[in-house]
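User: Could you go from structure to sequence for me? I need the amino acid at each position, not a summary. Structure tokens:
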């Protein structure tokens, strides 16, 4: 019983800020006046409920400062519009960019919260015209809205997906241009990286990163040093929440996340890729 309580106590993330950024990041705060590796991404990079997320594991093995700039439920907008984050990434020896979904960004059809990118703010007049039979005031979260739009009309929904993918690609190119050439992409997901239609995937609208295809990443390859693909093994996935720390009220949310064993596998893929591009002659 004592061990169970310890495993499920709430985790302290030692939140910190860098420069003029309004975002709170996972601490402890790292020094930026020595060589460092930057990590940006969503919930997995931040390591919600994870005592030692993969950036921490990379830091331990490589013995080089790793700056965790992950954001829970973060999308590209949380980073690309923050000059402080872009400056930190541009100054890094390497920046590892976790591939984030195309749903969590503002686009021609709807706007998201600038930092909490999973929050729906408003629909554009264009989307309201396409879905004139939907009351957008009912939605607070992006996935809820997208699910409702798909249920209302799969044919019209394809227009939305196309817009999100175009916006994602343009925003990624903007971000990678600001970061500079010392960067790599990380696909860290249960989902296979492929060009399979999103609706044919087992999790459909619950998949992460949502709506991203292999072809979309390949379009970005000339701008990065590498694309690292990590699909956790069945063995790592089977360990579930073992080793995670969370309050009992968050057990359902924790069960949907990649656990410590998956983070260990991610670090095992990221470390050799970093060594190859940082230290190879």
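Assistant: Here is the amino acid at each position, in order:
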């Amino acid at each position: 019983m004592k061990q169970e309580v310890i495993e499920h106590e709430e985790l302290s993330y030692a939140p910190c800020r860098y420069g003029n950024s309004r975002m709170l990041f996972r601490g402890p705060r790292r020094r930026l006046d020595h060589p460092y590796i930057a990590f940006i991404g969503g919930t997995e990079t931040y390591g919600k409920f994870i005592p030692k997320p993969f950036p921490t594991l990379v830091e331990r093995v490589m013995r080089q400062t790793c700056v965790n700039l992950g954001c829970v439920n973060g999308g590209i907008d949380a980073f690309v519009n923050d000059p402080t984050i872009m400056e930190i990434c541009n100054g890094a020896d390497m920046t590892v960019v976790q591939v984030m979904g195309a749903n969590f960004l503002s686009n021609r059809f709807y706007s998201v919260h600038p930092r909490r990118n999973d929050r729906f703010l408003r629909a554009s007049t264009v989307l309201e015209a396409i879905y004139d039979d939907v009351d957008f005031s009912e939605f607070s979260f992006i996935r809820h809205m997208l699910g409702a739009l798909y249920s209302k009309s799969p044919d019209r929904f394809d227009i939305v997906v196309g817009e999100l993918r175009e916006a994602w690609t343009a925003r990624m190119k903007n971000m990678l241009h600001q970061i500079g050439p010392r960067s790599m992409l990380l696909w860290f997901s249960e989902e296979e990286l492929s060009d399979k239609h999103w609706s044919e995937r087992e999790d459909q609208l619950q998949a992460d990163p949502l709506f991203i295809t292999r072809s979309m990443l390949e379009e970005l390859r000339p701008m990065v040093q590498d694309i690292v693909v990590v699909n956790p093994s069945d063995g790592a996935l089977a360990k579930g929440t073992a080793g995670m720390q969370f309050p009992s009220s968050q057990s359902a949310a924790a069960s949907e996340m990649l656990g410590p064993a998956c983070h260990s596998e991610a670090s095992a893929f990221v470390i050799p890729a970093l060594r190859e591009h940082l230290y190879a002659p």
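One structural detail worth keeping in mind: The radius of gyration is 19 Å.
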